Amino acid sequence: PKEIFLKDYKMPDYYFDTVDLKFLLGEDKTLVYSKISVYPRTEGKFFFFFKIFFNFKFYSASVPLVLDGVDIKLLSIKVDGKELKKEDYHLDSRHLTLTSPPTSTFVLEIDTEIYPQSNTSLEGLYKSTDNFCTQCEAEGFRKITFYQDRPDIMARYTCRIEADKSLYPVLLSNGNLIEQGGLEGGRHYVVWEDPFKKPCYLFALVAGQLESRDDTFVTQSGRTVFLRIWTPSHDVPKTAHAMYSLKAAMKWDEEVFGREYDLDLFNIVAVPDFNMGAMENKSLNIFNSKLVLASPETATDADYAAILGVIGHEYFHNWTGNRVTCRDWFQLSLKEGLTVFRDQEFSSDMGSRTVKRIADVSRLRSYQFPQDAGPMAHPVRPHSYIKMDNFYTVTVYEKGAEVVRMYKTLLGSSGFRKGMDLYFERHDGQAVTCEEFFASMRDANDADFSNFLLWYSQAGTPQVRVSSSYNPDARTYSLKFSQEVPATPGQPVKEPMFIPVAVGLLDSNGMALPISNVYHDGLLQSVSSNGQPVFTTVLRVIKKEEEFIFSDIFERPIPSLLRGYSAPIRLDSDLTDSDQFFLLANDSDEFNRWEAGQILARKLMLSLVADLQQNKSLVLNPKFVDGIRSILCDSSLDKEFVSRAITLPGEGEIMDLMEVADPDAVHAVRSFITKQLALHLKAEFLSTVINNKSSEAYVFNHENMARRALKNTALAYLATLNDPELTNLLVHEYNTATNMTEQFAALAAIAKNPGQVRDDVLADFYNKWSHDFLVVNKWFALQALSDIPGNVDNVQNLLSHPAFDLRNPNKVYSLIGGFCGSPVNFHAKDGSGYKFLGDIVLQLDKLNPQVASRMVSAFSRWRRYDEGRQALAKAQLEKIMSANGLSENVYEIASKSLA
Ligand code: B3K
Ligand code: ZN
Asked: Peptidase M1 alanyl aminopeptidase C-terminal domain: from which residue to which, for each copy (predicted)?
């Protein structure tokens, strides 16, 4: 397999102006005709004069035109109407090369044949449960027709689709429908025209028996946009929330970024077989059904929130991704980091900002930090890849979003908006790089961003240490920072990064201290705004060591550091436990209140893990119980915040902090603390359940979600006591629940304790919901994730459950992905979990390399465990590597993991 490098980027030699596609959809094959007007780069204005000025002939020698194409049969190829002879082109399994094409504009016509029915990779054109659909990002268009499959080729498309009318009454593509009609033999056709230039990864086609929920949106300039969400007819009632989310997103983008939708029609199609969440094809978004379909009875609050966020995300791509796209795939974060940032902000504005921030930071810590510390660590803008699909990662997406957030932290809302406006003004209709985004932010604000660009090129999570000191005589308070960026594969030595640290100071009563003057490098940095002191200031930590001195500080303050998590770093400070308890109780920055609790919990868990490893008996610090009690009983706090704040850090997060990860010890400690809390706070948890019940119909809004979240967290705590009376309560909750959020939470709580009750309720749930595959996936995931010892056998059996299907990514993610998320069972000492995954990856790879490669990633951090586990995991990776016909996707992850 070939590695591709950013430094090797070359501009294309040929551009495409218009692309006319014609699809004849059939049951055993599909014919694709493409007609492209091609012009050599040297036809551009500059080169035209250049050529005239020098010697026309000399600069007109033609260069080969290399087209990508995989798994397609070439039928014919014409240039300017003339069929090419065999000697004029070269065809291999990946490319079609025209050896000497014309030196000025020409028309290229290519006829091909493809086989969507047997395409299990779900990339290119494929059939999903009777319907045709496409997925082209990143490099799937080459499975449809021969093309320069790269994002800097932007062209205007038309698309004619012909198909059987009764099997495929609905035929969709990008842009506007300009023609349709009947054909002989029960067939019909449509023609779509997309007036916007686009890269081929945004092309889409859908054909099938679908019905739509229709609505309209009137834009800020008064245009009416038709909105349609397509699904099989029986699912249309479940699209109300998706439609609500779409309209909310359209309005939000106008209000917050001044971005209006640019066509008269916006389509969303939900399909059950889809590798990822969704795809932002121009005006024809295609979604995994999981992220469209919801009803109170079948979807949880988490599902509702995910739908809101992802519908928003794909819609926001219309400007950040489609109108302005990426020059090459290394720039992926240009559109993804920015669009994740936008969807995070959208969800914050629609719900609770603090809770959303907590959820996003937890996600970063649980998934991105481990990636950044492992063999797949890569910068937000990777330097190389073997298979681009492997780089749709938490680093490119979530860390990328943190990078965008730092611009906003440094520039403020209005400065950030100015930067965004300039970015669109400069680059609408272009395919650009991360530098262009950076330059827009800088130029719009005349900002000094010093070495900020390192965030795009250096991998690894910076480790920052802070020490503080107070000088009562001088009334100054000093914060000293030092930073270290760990070595990552291919990057042994790092430069210091530009880290914005938002800081506030609290006095001994917990009140915010005004900050007016900060000295840095002996220079006064006035931070007051319009003569008014501020309560939070953003320190710019740029060098390896920095000191900031606050003046006019009349008592030793408690610092609230990295407010709102102002940079994606690991922070260590000299704050004591009692300082952290103080912040937990008093910080006006709610995010940092949660953070203080997490810092305390992480420390507590690590010290109990050490005790356990030394065979000491475990004792829970009563101060911790009191801290949790006071949050639980503080009725002034937001309920979802409380639910988050009383939840311990995940097992993965704790293992990540250990020299040698010990899944059994971490699991035992987390269970121990949870159970102790349940014992000590049983009465409080019970009243939390009772006080947060509601007999009213399900409503999706923050207040109700928060109430349900708190109640469900309390139920989960109570379940750990495994007490018959409480089990009765859980079963009662399960039986009387009127929505999936509460029903599933009760089921999950019951499922914690092995026994007859668990078996009965799981069976009951399946019987209730066997007709709804999305709910059945929850049932798979719940069992897969279980920490019941020896659960691998149960998961193995579920593989042959009639509802399971290895070809459906959602089912794989629920059952196999779910299993890998259970630290005790996946990392079982006897290697049974590793063997299970090793076998299944090889089976999956034959069907769907993208899904297989996601699954194999669970092995990537094998070196973090003890020697016994290391040997067992390594053996599985080696087994995978030695398999015949391994996909590039799996090869890349497995080989980098072993390197
Ligand atoms: N852009 C798509 C992801 C495509 C993944 C290709 N393997 C969805 C999104 O991020 O919006
Ligand atoms: Zn995206």
From this structure: 578-899
